[in-house]
Design brief:
The protein is about 40% helix and about 15% strand. By secondary structure, the chain is an alpha+beta fold. It starts with a helix and ends in a 6-residue tail after the last helix. Helix 2 packs across helix 6. It binds flavin mononucleotide (FMN). Flavin mononucleotide (FMN) binds next to strand 3.
Length: about 220
């Protein structure tokens, strides 16, 4: 598979088969992704990989935490800024509407939508979860570099037949997870990622999100 093919083929997988992913395969994905670039070669990322009983423990922790505090624990790092543009808001709505249409969940079925949202906190059934941790001292540049690293993981997984879903949803239980993993005050658990074997039969995995055309985001000068 070429890089182009992996980029075009990768989608967020939101239903996985329960089959385990060997630790060696997860290591192989991380082994490739660690060659991602970062400014000054700072490599501002660290990863907590969970499977088995530890995966189940964080699933339970998230459920208990959100039951007690449905507003969540995003703290200083909200998942979205308050001031998304009209276009950006429209894309969010389009994605959600298309996903719930595919799932057969009606717009007014708040309970159904919440039920699907809650699947985030089970890694959508994936046997492996990755959590991405960054030091609080890091600036916007290093956060961008973390993003490159995460995309590298997603592509390295893709070429091995694995699926991923990046999951900022885990930020909702950031404080509790941080305490569970023994993270210091100086570390932020940014995001999660579900990793496993895609269930290709699941309707939700038929979702294909759209993208703005190149000329919609590129200003050409001097060509
Ligand atoms: C950093 C990041 C966090 C995300 N968090 C979630 C999440 O919590 N739950 C979810 O279902 N999708 C999540 N997504 C997936 C996006 O909705 C998805 O990437 C986007 O709609 C484009 O679709 P595609 O990944 O299928 O191409 C996240 C994506 C990124 C890059």
């Amino acid at each position: 598979m070429t890089v182009d093919e992996a980029l075009r083929q990768r989608i967020s997988i939101r239903a996985f088969k329960p089959d385990p992913v060997p630790q060696e395969l997860v290591r192989e994905v991380l082994e490739v992704a660690r060659w991602s670039p970062s400014g000054g070669n700072v490599q501002p990322w660290s990863v907590i990989a969970v499977a088995g009983a530890e995966r189940d423990a964080v699933v339970q922790l998230a459920q208990a935490t959100l039951a007690a505090n449905p507003r969540g624990e995003t703290g200083d790092y909200p998942i979205y800024p308050a001031d998304l543009s009209a276009d950006q808001k429209a894309r969010r709505v389009e994605l959600a509407e298309e996903m719930y249409r595919i799932l057969g969940i009606a717009r007014e079925d708040k309970f159904g939508r919440l039920g699907h949202m809650a699947r985030n906190y089970q890694f959508f059934g994936a046997p492996v979860g990755l959590f991405f941790v960054i030091d609080r001292t890091m600036g916007h540049g290093q956060w961008a570099h973390m993003g490159m690293f995460m995309q590298s993981i997603a592509l390295a997984a893709e070429v091995r037949g694995l699926g991923t879903c990046m999951q900022e949803a885990w930020a909702m239980v950031r404080a509790s997870l941080g305490a569970h993993f023994g993270l210091g005050e100086g570390q932020v658990l940014y995001c999660g990622m579900a990793l496993g074997w895609p269930d290709r039969e699941a309707p939700v995995n038929a979702l294909r999100s759209t993208r703005v055309e190149v000329d919609g985001f590129t200003t050409w000068r001097g060509f």
